[in-house]
Design a protein that fits this description.
The structure holds two protein chains of two kinds. Chain A contains 13 helices and no strands. By secondary structure, chain A is mainly α. In chain B, β12 and β13 form a beta hairpin. In chain B, α3 packs parallel to α5 and α4 crosses α5. Classes of the chains: A mainly alpha, B alpha+beta. Chain B: This is Spermidine/putrescine import ATP-binding protein PotA.
Chain lengths: 280, 366
């Protein structure tokens, strides 16, 4: 079957799903866009307002900082997991991959409450520390940036593991053997071979987790502090506290635009190289 | 190569294996073997797949550890030493080049590992690329090179740090026939120029015969015969060796006296003189190219073994013609002769006489 007819066949099979998704997703999105420009008046007033709003700017800064930091942190942790997984036998790897996926199958809300119990002022962790040092310890681990990063990395690491693992597994084993016979120590092999050759997976992981964390809402509101609120929380604030729906809509549009800008190259990349997602 | 000479004077053995074996659970990959490889020697490990030749190579390289025995590298016990400390070079069948590095970076890798000065690295890399004829391609990536060129990079990367031993694991296995022959010549030339000890793994007997100082023929995890290409070809000890290396006619017979054997239908053939157990059964091997075919009315040389029979088939395979003959006493003998034009080649169903010199008969030790 040639390429164009494959695409044709795919289009036929995909179109019902695409149509359904479009019917459900597009009208509300258009309504948000419509609201943000004050309906038919097509006013850019709200956009001018948020551009000059210090609250918006600060929140945008926080959002970017948190998204960058949490994706870097997640990819770092995911790389360690992926390299370890790549060294296992196929059978063991499958079992361990289920463990990696486990957090993805748990509701993020449930996980946030669980972390509150574990990390809270009188939580399990502080309890253990107090018992160990025989003194009252109340480390502030939630409702601040620590709690936020714990919650975000917990849900981002599994997403980053897959593209990185695919890249690491694609490295020819004899290249490692060659390097080792030539006298390279494990640290040098990691630096000169494993990391450069798994770079496509690492970049895919970075982009994916970055885009995921840009739109984080539940984790910052439950595990973050007042200064860790992100754009989604700002939308919620204008929506429910201030009842300024056009403003909330305008911020939503900005957020959506940012996610699209960072997400589009990833979509093309996946199509071309086949990395990421469900290829392991 | 002055350093190599000094070392060579110090001791004659590059590698010594003593009772080295490898088992995986109930499976024995390599029975305990003793083997010494001389400095500067080109030793080929030859054998069919599963014969243990790759296991042996991996034991020396340190990719796996032996179950029993010791391995000495230049009199130094390396049995439990990790591969990176052994100072061995290796050329892989699939090249094993770093795909993200240029040719230069690939060849420079082992020198950078050894933290050599950038100037020294540049000079050595260029010299070694010169040796393999890749000067000018140093900025290419491996995927921009042909298979033969990639393997040259593999070899350059190996000779650049002058390892005491270079192991080659079927390095030409992925190349086509013409290129393979050309590369055989180049590897032989490099071996001569550099004087390095080379341990070469192959399943291709022609390659082994062409390149080696000695061949170590393995089968079922054991050394079947170890000797020069000449010895293995002209003095095979067993049926396996005779059949694995070159083509052979095997005739079963019974020892009569010290220079005669009784074969099918009470015919006698002459074999080289030696002490043998009277009436013991042995196989006699005759190489097809040693068998001459003549017409029935032609005279044969005095003292030759002579059998007559009928030509079954005759195939023209270029320089040589292979003729299969069924003899009167029920043997099937293949003869190989330099090709002649079609009208003078033996035709199927024609009656012919076969003869060969007794000195070309090899009595196998079962």
């Amino acid at each position: 079957m040639n390429r164009s007819s494959t695409i044709g066949a795919q289009a036929i099979f995909m179109s019902p799903a695409v149509l359904l998704a479009a019917t459900i997703m597009l009208p509300p999105l258009f309504f948000i866009l419509y609201t943000s420009v004050h309906g038919t008046s097509l006013s850019l007033h709200e956009y001018r307002e948020i551009a000059s709003s210090s609250l918006f700017r600060r929140t945008l800064g926080t959002t970017l900082v948190i998204a960058v930091a949490s994706s870097v942190l997640s990819v770092f942790l995911a790389f360690i997991v992926a390299v370890h997984l790549a060294r296992q036998t196929a059978r063991r790897r499958t079992i361990l991959l289920v463990l990696v996926l486990l957090p993805l199958w748990t509701s993020i809300l449930v996980k946030c409450f669980a972390f509150t119990i574990i990390l809270g002022r009188d939580g399990i962790l502080n309890g253990i520390l107090s018992w160990l040092f025989n003194t009252k310890i109340q480390l502030p681990l939630v409702l601040n940036r620590i709690g936020l990063f714990v919650g975000l990395t917990n849900s981002l690491v599994p997403i980053a593991v897959f593209p990185i693992l695919a890249s690491v597994l694609a490295i020819d084993d004899s290249v490692y053997r060659a390097a080792s016979i030539m006298g390279a120590k494990p640290a040098r092999i990691l630096r000169t071979i494993t990391i450069p050759l798994s770079l496509p997976g690492i970049l895919a992981g970075l982009f994916t987790t970055f885009v995921y964390s840009l739109g984080a809402y539940i984790v910052p509101s439950l595990l973050g502090g007042p200064r860790d609120q992100m754009l989604s929380n700002l939308v919620d604030f204008y929506n429910r506290q201030v009842l300024d729906w056009p403003r909330a809509a305008a911020i939503s549009v900005v957020l959506l635009a940012m996610i699209s800008v960072f997400g589009t190259p990833l979509a093309f990349w996946r199509q071309r190289k086949g990395i990421g997602g469900a290829r392991v | 190569m002055g350093d190599a000479k000094v070392l060579a004077d110090h001791s004659a053995h590059a590698i010594t294996l003593r009772g080295t074996s490898k088992t995986y659970g109930p499976v024995t990959a390599l029975h305990p073997i003793d083997l010494t490889v001389d400095k500067g020697e080109f030793l080929t490990l030859l054998g069919p797949s599963g014969s243990g030749k790759t296991t042996l190579l991996n034991l020396i390289a340190g990719a796996i550890g032996p179950t029993t025995g010791t391995i000495l590298l230049d009199e130094r016990d390396i049995t439990r030493m990790p591969p990176r400390e052994r100072g061995i070079g290796m050329v892989f069948q699939n090249y094993a080049l770093m795909p993200h590095m240029t040719v230069f970076e690939n060849v420079a890798y082992p020198l950078r590992v050894r933290r050599e000065h950038p100037k020294a690295i540049r000079a050595k890399v260029m010299e070694s690329l010169d040796r393999v004829g890749l000067r000018g391609l140093e900025d290419r990536k491996p995927r921009q090179l042909s298979g033969g060129q990639q393997q040259r990079v593999g070899i350059a990367r190996c000779i650049v740090y002058s390892p005491a031993i270079i192991m080659m694991d079927e390095p030409l296995g992925a190349l086509d026939k013409n290129l393979r022959e050309q590369m055989q010549g180049e590897i032989k030339r490099l071996h001569k120029e550099l004087g390095t000890t080379i341990i070469y793994v192959t399943h291709d007997q022609e390659e082994a015969l062409n390149m080696s100082d000695r061949i170590c023929l393995l089968s079922g995890g054991q050394i079947v015969q170890l000797g020069s290409p000449d010895e293995l070809y002209f003095q095979p000890r067993s049926r396996f060796v005779a059949e694995f290396i070159g083509e052979s006619n095997l005739i079963s017979g019974r020892v009569i006296g010290n220079d005669r054997m009784k074969i099918a239908e009470d015919r006698f053939i002459l074999v080289p003189k030696a002490e043998r157990i009277e009436k013991s059964e042995h196989l006699v091997m005759v190489r097809p190219e040693k068998v001459r075919i003549s017409k029935l009315d032609e005279n044969t040389a005095e003292g030759d073994n002579v059998l007559s029979g009928e030509v079954v088939s005759s195939s023209f395979i270029g320089g040589m013609t292979r003729v299969t003959i069924n003899t009167e006493n029920g043997l099937s003998i293949t003869a190989k002769m330099v090709s002649a034009r079609a009208h003078s080649r033996p035709e199927p169903a024609s009656k012919v006489r076969l003869c060969w010199s007794p000195s070309d008969s090899v009595v196998l030790e079962n």
